Amino acid sequence: MPVDIAVVHGARTPIGRYKGALSSAPAHRLGALVIHEAVARGGLDLGAVDEVVLGCVGQVGPDAFNARRACLAAGLPVTTTAYNVNRLCGSGLQAVWSAAQSLTLGEADVVVAGGNESMTRQPLLDYRERARDEVPGEPIVDGTISLVTDPFGGYPMGMTGEVVADRYHISRQRQDRWAAESQRRVAVAVDEGRFDEQIVPVATRDGVVERDEHPRPGTTVEKLTSLAPVFSENGTITAGNSAGINDGAAAVLLMRSADLVPGAAPLCRLRDAVVTALEPEIMGVAPAEAIRTLLRRNGLTPDAIDVIELNEAFAAQVLAVMDGLKLDPDRVNPNGGAIALGHPVGATGTVLLLKAAYELRRTGGRLGVVALCIGGGQGIAALIENPGGTR
């Protein structure tokens, strides 16, 4: 459904490593910070926001109240409604799209949407049922591991990367080359300050976190080649060519473009979004069909897109999607991706939206696509436009 929604402004936290700099910060506190910052950057009062929509995958216990907790912690009035979205890795982008749908239908006038996740702080899960005392197998499960486990195959999500690498003939060498390039591009972006404007610092009990923690500058193909496969003895997926387990949050302020003050220039405009699905074991290639459908519906070809932010769950799936759509590698993740930056699952979709919007503004490009694979066999893709683009 094509729309015309203004992404007025937005912000993200730095992305923290697993058990790293943001590990002491609950997810709702990270969410509150970016909600408040997105509204402030948009020049609105907190009371102007009608609703908050947040993507979050870990929603156990008090985190079931995640969006509402973040909303109130951000200082929004108690009359502001809020709800969680869980489309797994696509949650942060789905939250933005759900907000856009509400705006298009006239159900709200101003919405803050985004995502927040603390993968570090997931609880241990006790699968013993109240109705009976015993269950077969080990009842205690690591909540973080459960977020990255495919319930259909009963294996770590990395095994879907192995399936994709095998089925689409993506070699270990190509994967490591892409991973090294992702690290290189992020290092350049950091050195040139390209992420600085996107990031709002996070004050923790251990100090203020101002920069992404996950990148490893100086990573080379040679170093990556030395890493052992993680999921299969003869496999190709390693810790070095996969996304990390991370903490972080991002949010954007949304309005109908027609409601903007005349002459106001939003960060970007959201034009459309698509969700598609296929077999769970090849979930990594699902963005290909989502992007294909999105472009077809809007009368576009890949050559018309200036920036493509494609989430790097695994280098293998990124390369398979690029091969399938014949994408220009220079336009895909020009400032690096999740292999280097990390992947706080509920937030990543909004992080990528911000990256694409800022890159379009920096380069003068007009159109961008944001896409993510989703565990369970889904893909999501969104089309954005830079109103000041000249291409």
TrEMBL record:
PROSITE patterns: THIOLASE_1, THIOLASE_2, THIOLASE_3
Domain of life: Bacteria
InterPro entries, A to Z: Thiolase, Thiolase-like, Thiolase_acyl_enz_int_AS, Thiolase_AS, Thiolase_C, Thiolase_CS, Thiolase_N
EC number(s) per entry: 2.3.1.9
Keyword ATP-binding: no
Pfam families in the record: Thiolase_C, Thiolase_N
Limits of the Thiolase C-terminal domain: 266-385
Residue ranges of every copy of the Thiolase N-terminal domain listed in the record: 5-257
UniProt GO molecular function: acetyl-CoA C-acetyltransferase activity
Residues at the active site: C89 (acyl-thioester intermediate), H343 (proton acceptor), C373 (proton acceptor)
Keywords: Acyltransferase, Transferase
Gene3D superfamilies reported in the protein's UniProt record: 3.40.47.10
Top-level EC class as recorded in UniProt: transferase
Family assignment from sequence similarity: Belongs to the thiolase-like superfamily. Thiolase family.
Protein name: Probable acetyl-CoA acetyltransferase
